[in-house]
Amino acid sequence: xxxxxxxxxxxxxxxxxxxxxxxxKDLVPPTPSFVSDEIQDAVFEAIDAVDKDMRxxxxxxxxxxxxxxxxxxxHAHLVSALTKLGFTLTNPSSLPTAxxxxxxxxxxxxxxxxNSEFDALPNVGHACGHNLIAVVGVAAxxxxxxxxxxxxxxxxxxxxxxxxxxxxxxxxILIREGLYDDLDACAMAHPGGGYGPTPFTGSxxxxxxxxxxxAGFDIEFHGRGAHAGAAPWMGINALDAAVQGYTAVSMxxxxxxxxxxxxxxxxxxxxxxxxxxxxxxKVSYSTRAMTVKDCLTLRKKTIACFQSAAEATGCSxxxxxxxxxxxxxxxxxxxxxLSYASFMEKAFGDKIATEGMTTASxxxxxxxxxxxxxxxxxEIPSPVGAGNHTAGFAASAGKPxxxxxxxxxxxxxxxxxxxxxxxxxFAKETxxxxxxxxxxxxxxxxPSLSEGFEML
Length: 456
Description:
GO terms for molecular function: dipeptidase activity. By secondary structure, this protein is α/β, with parallel strands linked by helices.
């Protein structure tokens, strides 16, 4: 006998059923959250509480741009702010504008680090947003410190102030001097832009290089001055050597792979006069490639262009190719990056891209070879075409909208730090991924990254 279809329940009965179902939901265990609500609340409340102070610190750095190794005012502002926020400040390095801000709760536990950059660029100020990077680091450290206290998590948070990212290799020097030796993991963030007033866009690239390796070098050409009209044959033109090398490098680019870069400038004009054969010129260049090895090979080819130009013109040259100017390709730790992407989506609804890379470079790349690390990228509103290293981006980096986004990113970094310090399984997973990466790539910290060059 066929059963007849069930008739719809009377509305009063259906309402009662719905009410019963809702009441039963309270008996079902909640889906495990990324971290406890207590940890997240502690992080968010602490960062929100210092938001106005962070904005003031942001502007103090933004409005007083200072070049690499000369970040005296920014250093003073950061050290003062961190001291008031309850951190212990030291500088166990040779760099006067570096610092380490430390807070420890309980005994034992792991150490999680953040980085703050604060150097600017010539003529365009904070056109790479290092004022934002600085306050993201401070706010993230504040948030993690609060979580350690509120949730009684044993561990240490360290914020390392790293000068000279825009050349000079501040982090390379600090790694060599041991400032990263006791970190179990590390994180930072970096803004980008130039795409107009777009919705929040973030990244934590994995699966390969997240940025290119970079190797810088300088070459000085020494010629002989002479009267350009009366006796030009008596001179040896150093500027000709620089221009000839510059042209040769431009021709070299035709044979470079799409992911390789060579760029530089000619310097020395302050010593020139149009009626004197230039006796001095200098070039400052960088090469970039997917790996340090390929980058150094390209640097050697590029230097050969200038060596040949020096020989052709009769100039002598001095080559400076320091290990401090070798920035490794950045390799974000996969568990840290994926956890950050997961949290930002759950907490804010933001989609974080984990595929792709930037063809820029950073000395944070060297950190990713030293300790499990990741860098969170994020876009700030800036006019179309006003990307990093432009005056337009510098202006955008000082806007309230950029600050607001930076504080959101700081919350994400702090939560990842709290997860790492409170979740032993996650910490093991993070370290296991790092060990696998190092086994595959080898140790970057070799006695010398650069090769010797024959001086002409």
